[in-house]
């Protein structure tokens, strides 16, 4: 039945080569943990991506209840966490996943560094990876404010002070991020927009570039 | 496996054929099953989370004190009353409207002014051409004082559940009209 549906579509659109190109490629022996167990270090990039997918999914579901508004934000988070079925789990995924994605990304970066995989011809992919790293930090920063509790509020105040300390441009950056002269309603909506629309869009574009480069250049050779 | 055996006795007999699963197929099923199991672990909580509102127990409509019974006449009068409603994390007040009259048998009839045609608000005696009727300004639906549909609308006006206690009228949930049907 499923096979017939697939064949019907494939006859018309010839999709087999497309998914072959995406999914069907050889894993070299030196990156396959079944051959050398130590090759598990090559899994960290994939794990980062896996957690990113969970972050995107759980984030999409959280916005069904969350409101980016200074009066309702905390109440909506408390409501979805304590009243809605599985709210604790879904917010938990997003909360812990946010930390885990940074950990996995760090381990992935270490692996790339110590296997020398950033060297020619893969320098550009290292740079894109670094950009992804900063986008992820940005996502973590902007997401931290959204529950609008004391921790979120003061963490954001501190972060904005750090932005303020940039030579010359600091005060402008701070006011731009803050959306005004205080951390308030406009800061919250701004951070929400950045967290949910701007940075994920940039992240997806960078990830596409990251993956295309891996497919073009292949996995770096054994040590 | 038993190819040698088969070759020797070629055409003499057919070996019993067992439906064997190939190693590749077994691995495909195992990997597919394990993947599906893990994906379900991620996705199911989110789906349950999303459908939670339709699975929540609906609140029983409480009766709200609206007006003294002595003020009700044969002629329908408009009354507004407020209903506290819990809307997720937000507590709000909804203002509802009822047209209340007493019929010849002394029954209290409280009608909801939401037209049964397409949901506009009807008014009593609001059109000079149709005296002593409810009239809807949108498409000209008309109703009798008891809410019976005279034109355009397919059903009579809905009623509020009504209760009289200590000379006060209490209104509850909106239910289909029971007076005229």
From TrEMBL, chain A:
NCBIfam families: cytb_ExtP (NF040969), PRK03735.1 (NF002990). InterPro entries: Cyt_b/b6_N (IPR005797), Cytb/b6-like_sf (IPR027387), Di-haem_cyt_TM (IPR016174). GO terms for molecular function: electron transfer activity; metal ion binding; oxidoreductase activity. This is Menaquinol:cytochrome c reductase cytochrome b subunit. The main subunits of the menaquinol:cytochrome c complex are a Rieske-type iron-sulfur protein (QcrA), a cytochrome b (QcrB) and a cytochrome c (QcrC). PROSITE patterns: CYTB_NTER. The chain crosses the membrane at residues 39-67, 96-114, 126-146, 192-214. The lineage of its organism: Bacteria, Bacillati, Bacillota, Bacilli, Bacillales. GO terms for biological process: respiratory electron transport chain. SUPFAM superfamilies: Transmembrane di-heme cytochromes (SSF81342). GO terms for cellular component: plasma membrane. Keywords: Cell membrane, Electron transport, Heme, Iron, Membrane, Metal-binding, Transmembrane, Transmembrane helix, Transport.
From TrEMBL, chain B:
Keywords: 2Fe-2S, Disulfide bond, Electron transport, Iron, Iron-sulfur, Membrane, Metal-binding, Oxidoreductase, Transmembrane, Transmembrane helix, Transport. The main subunits of the menaquinol:cytochrome c complex are a Rieske-type iron-sulfur protein (QcrA), a cytochrome b (QcrB) and a cytochrome c (QcrC). Component of the menaquinol:cytochrome c reductase complex. The Rieske protein is a high potential 2Fe-2S protein. SUPFAM superfamilies: ISP domain (SSF50022). The chain crosses the membrane at residues 26-47. One of its GO terms (molecular function) is 2 iron, 2 sulfur cluster binding. This is Menaquinol:cytochrome c reductase iron-sulfur subunit. It holds the Pfam family Rieske. Residues 102-171 form the Rieske domain. Belongs to the Rieske iron-sulfur protein family. Residues 1-23 are annotated as: Disordered. InterPro entries: Rieske_2Fe-2S, Rieske_2Fe-2S_sf, Rieske_Fe-S_prot, TAT_signal.
């Amino acid at each position: 039945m499923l096979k017939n549906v697939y064949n019907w579509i494939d006859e018309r659109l010839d999709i087999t080569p497309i998914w072959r190109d995406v999914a069907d490629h050889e894993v070299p022996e030196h990156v396959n943990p079944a051959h050398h167990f130590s090759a598990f270090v090559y899994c960290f990039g994939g794990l980062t991506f896996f957690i990113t997918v969970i972050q995107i999914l759980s984030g999409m579901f959280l916005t069904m209840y969350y409101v980016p508004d200074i009066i309702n934000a905390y109440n909506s988070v408390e409501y979805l966490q304590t009243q809605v079925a599985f709210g604790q789990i879904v917010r938990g995924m997003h909360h812990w996943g946010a930390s885990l994605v940074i950990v996995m990304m760090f381990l992935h970066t270490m692996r790339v560094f110590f296997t020398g995989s950033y060297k020619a011809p893969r320098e550009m992919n290292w740079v894109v990876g670094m950009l992804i790293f900063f986008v992820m930090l940005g996502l973590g920063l902007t997401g931290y404010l959204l529950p609008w509790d004391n921790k979120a509020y003061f963490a954001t105040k501190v972060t904005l002070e750090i932005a303020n300390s940039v030579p010359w441009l600091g005060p402008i950056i701070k006011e731009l991020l803050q959306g005004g002269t205080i951390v308030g309603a406009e800061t919250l909506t701004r951070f929400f927009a950045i967290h949910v629309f701007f940075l994920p869009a940039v992240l997806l574009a960078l990830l596409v570039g990251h993956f295309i480069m891996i497919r073009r250049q292949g996995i770096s050779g054994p040590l | 496996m038993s190819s040698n055996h088969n070759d020797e006795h070629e055409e003499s007999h057919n070996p019993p054929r067992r439906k064997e699963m190939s190693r590749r197929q077994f691995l495909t099923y195992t990997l597919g099953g394990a993947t599906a199991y893990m994906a379900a672990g991620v996705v199911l909580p989110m789906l349950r989370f999303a459908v939670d509102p339709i699975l929540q127990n609906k609140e029983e409509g409480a009766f709200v004190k609206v007006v003294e019974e002595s003020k009700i006449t044969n002629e329908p009068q408009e009354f507004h009353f407020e209903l506290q409603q819990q809307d997720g994390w937000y507590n709000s007040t909804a203002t509802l409207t009822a047209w209340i009259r007493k019929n010849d048998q002394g029954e209290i009839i409280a009608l909801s002014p939401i037209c049964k045609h397409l949901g506009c608000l009807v008014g009593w005696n609001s059109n000079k051409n149709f005296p002593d009727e409810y009239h809807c300004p949108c498409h000209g639906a008309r109703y009798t004082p008891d809410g019976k549909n005279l034109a355009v609308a397919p059903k009579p006006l809905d009623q509020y559940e009504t209760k009289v206690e200590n000379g006060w009228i209490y209104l509850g949930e909106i239910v289909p009209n029971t007076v005229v049907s």
